[in-house]
Predict the structure.
Amino acid sequence: MGTMRLADELPEVFERFGRVSARRMFGGHGIFHEGRMFGLVSGERLYLKTDEESRAKFEARGLAPFEYMRAGKLTPTSYVEAPAEIYEDREEAARWARLAWEAVVRRDGAAARQKPAARKIAATKAPRKKPAAKKAAVAKAATTNRSGAKR
């Protein structure tokens, strides 16, 4: 089964979870629900989003994380391979999709709680001053007319 074909089948696989769509990205497909990515298809495999709370359930099944090459070494991500039975059992598919979706919601909730603090820090920083050389160039330009003659 090719990447596109698998991505095309996922709306049916996850029908008991809810509406999902696939968008081409990263040489594979992102799998979305309510506008947020909760899975990805790479090669012929589906990976679902995990976090600290849900990852153990995937690891207990011996499911491997999605990895990519970074600086010459494999780097694992928070996406872990989905169990094979989801393709045959719609209830299992919905259960695993909910685990992934909950990880997305927790991540987005944590990010939303952090944003106001980040904005507050940025607002308290002093404005950046122009380097002295740039100030001199601006002053010189102000005293020179278009023909290059000084005023």
In short: The first strand starts at residue 21 and ends at 25. The chain has a mean pLDDT of 83. The radius of gyration is 25 Å.
